[in-house]
Amino acid sequence: VHEHLNFQDDDNMDFEDQNTEEFLLKDTFNFLLSNESSPSIFSEIFQRLYRSGVFKGENYQKELNQCLSLEDINSIMTFIKELRSLGQFQLLFPSITLGTQSWMREFYDMANPMGKPGSVPTQYWSLLKVFEQFQLLNKKAQLYPLEWNSFTEDENIEKPQVPFDATEHKKDVSVSSVANYPLGLGTNKISMFVVDESPVQGESLITYKLTIHREDRPSLPLFEDFTACGFVQDCGLLIHPEETCGLQPISPDYIEAISQSELKICSSGDTKGQWIVPCLSCSDNRTCDWREITWQPHNCQYGVLTKPQLQRCLEGRKILFIGDSTNRGIMYYLIERLNETLQEWQKVHGTKIYRNVNDGKTLISYSYYPQFWINPSMRPTFEKALEHLLQRSRPLENTRQTVLVVGGVQWLNSNHLQIIHKVLKRENLLNVLVIIKTLGIGFHLPVDGVHFLTQSEVQNLWKENLIILDAAKKYGYEVLDTFAITMGRYKEFLQGTCGCHFHEVVKSKLSKEHHFIKIKQSRNHIVGKYFSNQNKLQQQQQDSVINYQSPYHVRGPINEVCSEILLSRMCASKGAV
């Protein structure tokens, strides 16, 4: 049996030979497709194509120059089966090798004589280019799934964005421009509105919804010869140009030192550290197991509390959050960590009280700030917003039983800390525990409608972050330095136009993302011991968080790291860690 069907292209072939070939062809596919649902239509279309000269015509010769392989045949068989059982679905033209694209067009037109010839293929080719040229789409096909791998070594997608040809309306003048949309890791949903621009209509005709999945870093499973590599900043966004960037080898002596179980607990939430990941080679980030990456402060550790320890630590306490969505993500992580479930969730942009936390023994309140959508002249000041949160959360003890967490991605500055001190003094609450969550990476992509920071402006943020840290310590506040943690992983943001979200609340059935694997012992026993210990800590931590009966789950490993450091600082004074 030959792998490729081979018909002689002979213009002198007589009728008998032609019949013989057609019988062979029909018998072959009857044999291959026996007990299947589509042999008759497949054989019929195949023969019609042959008779119409597709096999022998010029178009075929230009595209294929060879006979169908078994892989091509299998692809066509699958395609025909799908055509026969579309149900209520509208076909999105399948992605296959270029050599059989003309075949697919012919099959689609013959099997769907009532459809518009070429309409779906035309849509598909446009989608492949990620709508570089947005064409008229079929109104029945409104959901288009796309894949996007952001970590391929390709300078054209170094900054994961989707360009669109768009028309922007400004004071009744239409301006054609390119609109950029940032793609976060995981699922991104984009709605595109088609509008009738005629003065008579002036209304939205239809909405196209794009679902684009951006893949995470590819991970290579660990082998025996892995080593430890560390990094603080990515070479694609240098915060400290004078310092090294990217993966750097870590000495075995240092790994041995930080692998000791008696390693001291970090005394503050801004201890300098680095991301450590196991790799076969520090010179090639494709050889790393990124699932095992961990944040490691220098010469100390942040203790991970068990659920009973955390419940005892936060029993009888009131925890007040004020800030933007980055603070909100940490708050929801805390609620899920305490309750082992997240029963309710919403993108709160006001003030909300959560009383059913830790079996009702812990109260958590949250106030969104700044309310950027309100006219600046009407927008509440930070002082007013803080006063409102304190009033809604009363009665409050003037002790460390009351915890105030303040922070945002980039709006916070040292003046806000002065206001905090003034308000707490006026409210007789100077003895409460205040934790300042500092700035974070974000707004580093040019996105329409969102302010954009250049590299030098991002570097200035680092300097502003240091000023905030110094001011916080001056007032005796605890800190959580999120800028140092997020800057090296700036590409790994989740859905959102700011490129600053490192958390996402998802339905639990979609959140089974944790892969606890047994690491093979490295020939370098010290390195293997370190990552084995880290794996155990992560397992312990996740055992107290993941509950698949919970309606929602907060996902995001970077947000998880920040949240655990925050919890360790909350409980440090109580001796829980």
Automatic annotation (TrEMBL):
Every NXPE C-terminal domain range: 295-420
Name by which UniProt lists this protein: Cadherin-like and PC-esterase domain-containing protein 1
InterPro entries associated with the record: NXPE4_C
Organism of provenance: Hipposideros armiger (Great Himalayan leaf-nosed bat)
Superkingdom field: Eukaryota
